[in-house]
Specification:
Blueprint: H1 6-27, H2 34-45, H3 51-58, H4 62-74, E1 78-83, E2 86-94, H5 96-116, H6 122-139, H7 144-156, H8 161-165
Length: 166
């Protein structure tokens, strides 16, 4: 059954949370999508990232991030400042209007999180974060040096009694 597949349950929870979060942002009368908020927030925190870096942080492809950035620029939530050392490149910054939107949406974001995480204790949340981080690291592409380190560690590992007996 699909409900027994962990990744199905995880995806179902994420999708439901995004619908819930967007509905609450809309209900608050704030004209921004969850994805636009994520990009705006990343730029506010790190205004020196490339679009590829931003895409990685918000889990979107570069084309989607480029479209979101273009829309945020058009709406005046972002501004692009030419870099003095390279006039062909611009640095994105959150505009005062963009900052106002981030401030307005923050209570909604905090409320959404509180509702979604209701009933989960700090220990459970810590375990969940650690487990999700482990899954992420297990699935991300490894650099050649990381593969070599893992191979070396495996060579020096002591087999468990179950492995030794098989």
């Amino acid at each position: 059954m699909l409900s027994e597949i962990l990744f199905y349950s995880l995806d179902k929870a994420i999708r439901q949370y995004r619908k819930f979060a967007q509905a609450n942002i809309d209900r608050a009368g704030i004209d921004i999508t969850v994805d636009q908020w994520l990009v705006l927030r990343v730029i506010e925190e790190h205004d020196d990232l490339t679009q590829a870096d931003m895409a990685e942080r918000v889990f979107k492809d570069q084309a989607s991030v480029a479209r979101i950035i273009a829309l945020l620029l058009k709406r005046g939530l972002l501004k692009a400042e030419r870099l003095p050392q390279d006039g062909r490149r611009s640095q994105l910054r959150v505009s005062p209007l963009g900052h106002d939107v981030l401030v307005a949406v923050q209570p909604v974001v905090l409320s959404n999180r509180a509702v979604a995480l209701k009933g989960l204790g700090e220990d459970e949340l810590l375990q969940l974060r650690q487990s999700l981080e482990r899954i992420y690291n297990n699935c991300r592409p490894k650099l050649p040096a990381e593969n070599a380190s893992a191979d070396a560690a495996a060579l020096h590992a002591v087999p468990s009694t179950q492995e030794a007996s098989s």
